[in-house]
Design brief:
This protein is mainly β and about 120 residues long. Helices cover about 0% and strands about 50% of the residues. The strands form 2 sheets. Strands 2, 4, 5, 6, 9, 10 and 11 form a 7-stranded mixed β-sheet that branches. Strands 1-3-8-7 form a 4-stranded antiparallel β-sheet, with no helix packed on it. A hairpin with a 6-residue loop joins strand 4 (about 35-40) and strand 5.
Length: about 120
Amino acid sequence: QVQLVESGGGLVQAGDSLRLSCAASGRSFSRYTMGWFRQAPGKEREFVAVIDRSGRWTSYADSVKGRFTISTDNAKNTVSLQMNSLKPEDTAVYYCAASGRIYSTVARNYDYWGQGTQVTVSS
């Protein structure tokens, strides 16, 4: 079992930056691929970014590529999402997720989920 707790969300203006963090507890953090997903009102949950167990491989949704950066700190059991140049369309609840199986951009491949943190970007 892994417990995930996100933090760092808030209300910002377009062009601002935010850093989301996800603290993991339970089984060894380095066993998991870690991902960030988001869900806007009335929309399905969508992939944002993923980082593999080693921290060397990352993938991003086209909509955030070049603006968002995912990283891990295995010593602190945390995964972070640095979000720059935020846009109103980035407004969503952001979820941290862990997969013990595969490196994936698909939500159903993730075994553990946090409760989410709200990010609101005003224009």
